[in-house]
Hints:
With 121 residues, the chain is mainly alpha-helical. It contains 5 helices and 3 strands, in the order ααβααββα. It has helices spanning 2-8, 11-20, 27-31, 38-50, 69-102, and strands at 25-26, 54-59, 62-67. The protein has a 3-stranded antiparallel β-sheet.
Amino acid sequence: xxxxxxxxxxxxxxxxxxxxxxxxxxxxxxxxxxxxxxxxxxxxxxxxxxxxxxxxxxxxxxxxxxxxxxxxxxxxxxxxxxxxxxxxxxxxxxxxxxxxxxxxxxxxxxxxxxxxxxxxx
Length: 121
């Protein structure tokens, strides 16, 4: 799991994941979307491959990458208890907000002047 999180910690690698969401892409097509050197993109692809987030197949002279759904399912299973925790917290917040909207207008005291009353003037 650590290797997955380390791979996802980098912005460029997350961008590669986003590009691959739409389907398979060759290494060259992925590299063309970045302003960094092809060698840098290749390094990012190797890290994603080692983490199991992508797989690669050779098609002629091209290496074609695709997402590995099983690794994302594993990540999703790990995150599920945290997702439920935050959903419960957000549901509770929504309930409190709704209660606040239903309550009558605020009866908070009006601000008073800091000046002392002047008597006998």
